[in-house]
């Protein structure tokens, strides 16, 4: 993953932020919308694209475009930096492949202990029953 090339493929759009803020909120566009076209990205390999499509399927649009919003601060530049950090963190976290599980067998001692406890509980429950009169 080449971070510089990915950053060149990002598209930003400034929107008016919602919520309280007085008269200033009606004049400035401080909310940032970050879009990244996963399908047409040249900086990601095909394996990375398929991995991200599966892991980020709930966050992608039908055209495989990732959209992030940031409106935490009043500054457009700080919101842009925060959106980039979030985006890179999201991509890096989802490119990690999970380790394959190694199959293990229980030890002979563990098997023996399990069978002994089963035997003890079955005897305990058998002693609770009424004796048969023949």
UniProtKB/TrEMBL annotation:
InterPro entries given in the database record: Pep_chain_release_fac_I, Pep_chain_release_fac_I_sf
Transmembrane segments: none
GO biological process: rescue of stalled ribosome
Residue segments, region Disordered: 98-134
Gene Ontology MF annotations: peptidyl-tRNA hydrolase activity; ribosome binding; translation release factor activity
Bias-annotated ranges (Basic residues): 98-112, 121-134
Pfam families per UniProt: RF-1 (PF00472)
Sections of the chain in a coiled coil: none
Source species, domain of life: Bacteria
Domain Prokaryotic-type class I peptide chain release factors: 16-32
Signal peptide: none
Family the entry assigns: Belongs to the prokaryotic/mitochondrial release factor family.
PANTHER family the UniProt entry points to: PEPTIDYL-TRNA HYDROLASE ARFB
NCBIfam families documented for this protein: PRK09256.1 (NF006718)
Protein name as annotated: Peptide chain release factor 1
